[in-house]
Amino acid sequence: xxxxxxxxxxxxxxxxxASAEIGLRIGHGxxxxxxxxxxxxxxxxxxxxxTKRLELNIEVMSPIVPNPLxxxxxxxxxxxxxxxxxxxxxxxxxxxxxxxxxxxxxxxNLVPTYLTLRITPLTIGTVAAGRRENFLxxxxxxxxxxxxxxxxxSIIEYDHYITGTWRDYV
Amino acid sequence: xxxxxxxxxxVLLLCFSLYAAPKVxxxxxxIGVDGDSSARTEIKLNLIARPFSSDIMNPFVRAEYGVGMGxxxxxxxxLTAVAGVELFRSMTNPLFFTMANKGPxxxxxxxxxxxxxxxxDLYAELSLFRVLDKDFIYEWFTxxxxxxNSSIQKWGVYLLRFTAMF
Lengths: 170, 166
Description:
CATH architecture of chain A: Beta Barrel
CATH class of chain B: Mainly Beta
Number of domains of chain B: 1
Helix content of chain B: 10-25%
Strand order of the largest sheet of chain A: 1-3-4-5-6-7-8-11
Shape of chain B: globular
Number of strands of chain B: 10
Low-confidence stretches of chain A: none
Number of helices of chain A: 1
Mean pLDDT of chain B: 90
CATH topology of chain B: Porin
Strand content of chain A: over 45%
Structural class of chain A: mainly beta
Number of domains of chain A: 1
Radius of gyration of chain B: 18 Å
Number of helices of chain B: 1
Largest sheet of chain A: 8 strands, antiparallel, barrel
Largest sheet of chain B: 8 strands, antiparallel, barrel
Distance between the termini of chain B: 35 Å
Low-confidence stretches of chain B: none
Oligomer: heterodimer
CATH architecture of chain B: Beta Barrel
């Protein structure tokens, strides 16, 4: 376990240092039935650019009302922008209206439990603009522990980029 | 007949000029997601009217309705109607980092009623993390309370309310 954690941290360090774009993600996110009757759940995470179209999202979801942090589902997703480049070099921004398809692995209490597939039908914004809004990401979550399916739903997720934005060009 | 026509045209012109002055009278529509102390989550659509554009105590009215899910199952939310004020607009915006365009920080306070069409209660909310973009209002972590017989019957938090202004 300790070895896995160290390897994971090292891999993340390499990914962080190699990536030109890093953003923070906050929004709504829930996997039903895992969060059923637990109230409002929020999603927070980090968005790391891997290539011009691929991104890595490390995310955690937890109830915030009425019992904050009473449960946590954490994991990662690899997202692919199907509408065009999410970012570009030579000072040009990427496609500001896009669609993303994501594959993910999520843990419940640090036990790998879900394989997820979701589609974000509309993203508005770019890394260069410093922000991106992801509207109505929706998909399925396969609980491979008990072979059941759930819904992975979000109303909106907001990405705030720290690096790779217009600020880097000023 | 001629008199009536003149009155109608004048009223229409007044309405159009109010609508055509975007910085004064503005309508908006938006969507938000909230959760309350009974572990119910709701997604609500809202309509807002902001008749003036003052930097201090700017009034607005808003109505909201939507769907929700909780221990009682899936169903329609309460209809909520409020009147409120934007307390101030400050370009010293602690939330500027969340915005693409420079816009003011504008906390708001509102109160009204919430009803399931059988019973009505008082409703109050405080929106501290609220920013104005040119054509949008973003509100994060707005807190609200439903008050019945002078005591808080229910409280909750809006994770995000996003309103587009026309």
